[in-house]
Amino acid sequence: MYKSLLKPLFFLKKPEDAHHFTVDLTRLTFNLPMIGSIVESTFHLEDKKLEREVFGLKFKNPVGLAAGFDKDAKVIDEMAMLGFGFIEIGTLTPKPQEGNPQPRLFRLPQDESLINRMGFNNGGVYEAVERLKKRKSTVLVGGNIGKNKVTPNENAVDDYLICLEALHDHVDYFVVNVSSPNTPNLRDLQEKEPLKALLQAVKNVNDLKPNPKPILLKIAPDLTDGQLDDIIEIVQETKINGVIATNTTTDRSQLNTSKGEVEAIGAGGVSGKVLGKRSTEVIRYLSEKSNKAFPIIGVGGIFSAEDAIEKLEAGASLIQVYTGMIYEGPGLIKKIKKGLLAHFSQ
């Protein structure tokens, strides 16, 4: 029904308008009497074989919702009804910010991909905390945190610590995001010394808490092997809990969409099918080079159970979807879980 009816309707709208419409529609309809239970029964598929224990947390299944869809923690309970094993909110920043000027989200249907230059648009971490206090579901929630655009890199650690303090009692794990291509100079924080200092500062504050939370690092797919070697070293030195591979890519060489159309869109990170191969390469490299020293959450180009299995076999412990759900629909989550069960039974 999604591909034949809903998707064509959604794709008539501008991408960002379609996103807000989907979020609003989900909040409205999923909370109507009987509708929520129908949704849950339609998308429900749980099995002991799908359960995972990763960085000390018990996941009912390995399929998560990537950051970016529910930046402001507006639809955690509703997304949980679709059968996700975990949901990542954010990226959140200390102060609310509008992000980059619109339009800033673009579809590439020929590539089943998206280009975005959202720029960490969000209502601020404190607004999200108030919503988190009211959530009803027990689904695991990750807090993806970043810095405000106006904060210079030399003060970036302050922004990450503000978010950590605000969210600590309300999320199950943290993701330090230094890999978005849409905040000026943010990716400079992926360089070895700044990154090590940032992660160590975040970990030191987290470790002083009565109930420390797992700390993960989200990295770009555009890093060289040498930079990935640095990531492995930093993860092991700072003793953070894992890596999310990967964010969007600035590489457009694999796109089938015409060069003129892509150039007209302008700056932004690419997600979707075109990212799948490189994301898997990064996962495999990190896993093999580190001798599986830390867990990896695989994200990028997952449109089927086969894509998810490829990520897991490359070394990921868990996977996340976002763009794949836009093109394939919410049934993708159950399809992936069915495929994993069939794979595990072979």
What's the structural blueprint in terms of helices and strands?
Layout: H1 2-10, H2 15-30, H3 35-43, E1 52-54, E2 57-59, E3 63-65, H4 76-81, E4 86-92, E5 105-108, E6 113-116, H5 125-132, E7 140-145, H6 156-167, E8 173-177, H7 192-207, E9 215-219, H8 225-238, E10 242-245, H9 259-265, E11 269-272, H10 276-289, E12 296-299, H11 305-314, E13 318-321, H12 323-328, H13 331-344
Parallel strand pairs: 3-4, 3-13, 4-7, 7-8, 8-9, 9-10, 10-12, 12-13
Antiparallel strand pairs: 1-2, 5-6, 6-11
Helix pairs in contact: 6-7, 7-8, 8-10, 10-11, 11-13
Characterization of this structure:
This protein is an alpha/beta fold and 346 residues long. The two termini are 30 Å apart. The chain has a single domain (40-344), classed as Aldolase class I (TIM Barrel, Alpha-Beta Barrel), CATH 3.20.20. Helices cover 41% and strands 16% of the residues. The model has no long low-confidence stretch (mean pLDDT 97). Helix 6 links the parallel strand 7 (140-145) and strand 8 (173-177). The strands form 3 sheets. The protein has an 8-stranded parallel β-barrel with strand order 3-4-7-8-9-10-12-13, surrounded by 5 helices.
| Physical arrangement of strands within the biggest beta sheet | 3-4-7-8-9-10-12-13
Classified by CATH, the class is Alpha Beta
The rounded Rg comes to 19 Å
The CATH architecture assignment turns out to be Alpha-Beta Barrel
CATH fold description: TIM Barrel
Helix tally?
Answer: 13
How helical, in percent, are the residues?
40-55%
Quote the distance from N terminus to C terminus. Answer: 30 Å
Largest sheet: 8 strands, parallel, barrel
Relevant CATH superfamily: Aldolase class I
Domain Dihydroorotate dehydrogenase catalytic: 50-341
Keywords: Cell membrane, Flavoprotein, FMN, Membrane, Oxidoreductase, Pyrimidine biosynthesis
Active site: 180 (nucleophile)
Pfam family, one: DHO_dh
